[in-house]
Specification:
GO biological process, one term (chains A, B): proteolysis
Number of helices of chain A: 7
Protein name (chains A, B): Dipeptidase E
CATH architecture of chain A: 3-Layer(aba) Sandwich
Radius of gyration of chain A: 17 Å
Oligomer: homodimer
Order of helices and strands of chain A: EHEHEHEHHEHEHEEEEE
GO molecular function (chains A, B): serine-type peptidase activity
Family (chains A, B): Belongs to the peptidase S51 family.
InterPro entries (chains A, B): Class_I_gatase-like, Peptidase_S51
Chain lengths: 233, 233
């Protein structure tokens, strides 16, 4: 497999996907067109505009971008594509749409076959075991929380350390993930913004400028360094 | 109906339920025992300890507290109770448990019949139309997101204004609720900590020290004052 799952699409003060430019040249090497999956975006920006935003970035890499919403036969469009990019937005909406269109498993089959896959935020979560560690609001009811399981763990994107100055009783991110671990037995990767997960063939690593926080049943959360191998998680 | 749906159980720096003491005397007037529903709490504290915490507070009001987990026949326990308190925790776990035990509708029937109901946080969300505006992590998959619909709107508990100083690309609470409105047509009550919703007979008001933020399709979010009537929302 050849996949990149990023915590976020855009760094604070940066442009869309810009910080990933060198990694994306490597991910999509030899590919001149990819399929963009815009279904996470619930509003504010249309599927056309969202696809145009992705296309604008990939133009610099001489890669054309087509939006999956443009195709009547979406199964065929996924099977014919040379590579994929799923953008962020609302994970519940994305997972519901992919299950209802019947393309979650078709996408999985193609990516497991070696076609390159890029996800950002919600698009990264669907590469993992399931969406049970998303931060998003459950604005729609998906027929299942299961995802592609391209990697053998759960992901918390936009992982955020607790702000101890906040006078507020909402749960911290760490508390929420610990609650997940009372009901589930998979490891959770707390991926800070700026970091990404890279899988090349069978090897999986965490990359980026920040350390990454790992949560697992029966252990205190701990940090791993950029470049760490998480293939056997 | 006679219900109180609070944003939070505990104010910053305060003790459990303390800020609601006067309101709770009025809510549970003439009642000497209530049933506590501890199922939102996924870990860290057992159902026994969580119930003991509620009992400790209600002792001051001369009200006994029994935990629903103590009863083998939970339907009968709900039907026999004189009043209810559902505590906070994880809304997904709470809603899944209530649906699986078959008591969501039994509780609704009893509360609609006039028995007093107190909810805090997740326990308040289950009093509304559905759980689609919870902040919680989807750590388990409920058979449905539908709730008791004791009030005709959605609730966002622990409502938090955007922190514009934060260098982070996770969505703000307001953005998430606006995403909800692209997929749903009900109003959303953004209930800040310290505020609560009170329903007495058919009249519903928002109460507490803060103003309350209202979200609805086709309008900019707006604020309403404490005491405002939201019966016709």
């Amino acid at each position: 497999m050849n996949i990149l799952l990023a915590s976020t699409s855009t760094l604070y003060g940066g442009n869309y996907l810009e910080y990933l430019t060198e990694e994306l040249k490597s991910l999509f090497q030899g590919i001149d067109e990819i399929l963009f999956i815009p279904f996470a975006r619930p509003g504010g920006i249309s599927h056309e505009d969202y696809t145009a935003k992705a296309a604008e970035f990939f133009l610099k890499l001489n890669i054309k971008v087509k939006g999956l919403h443009e195709f009547e036969d979406k199964t065929s469009a996924v099977n014919s594509a040379k590579g994929y990019f799923t953008g962020g937005g609302n994970t519940f909406l994305l997972v519901k749409t992919l299950h209802e269109l019947g393309i979650m498993n078709i996408l999985k089959y193609n990516v497991e076959g070696g076609k390159p896959y890029l996800g950002t935020s919600a698009g990264s979560v669907i590469g993992t075991l399931n969406m049970r560690t998303t931060n998003d609001m459950p604005i729609v009811y998906p027929p299942s929380f299961e995802c592609m399981a391209l990697v053998p763990f759960n992901l918390n994107a936009h992982y955020l350390d607790a702000d101890l100055t906040l006078k507020h009783n909402g749960e911290t991110r760490e508390t929420r993930i610990k609650e997940f671990l009372t009901q589930n037995n998979s490891k959770v990767i707390g991926l800070r913004e700026g970091n990404w997960i890279r899988k090349i063939n069978e090897k999986i690593t965490v990359e980026g400028p920040e350390s990454t926080r790992i949560f697992e049943v029966g252990k205190e959360p701990y940090e791993i360094k950029s470049g760490s191998d998480i293939s056997n998680f």
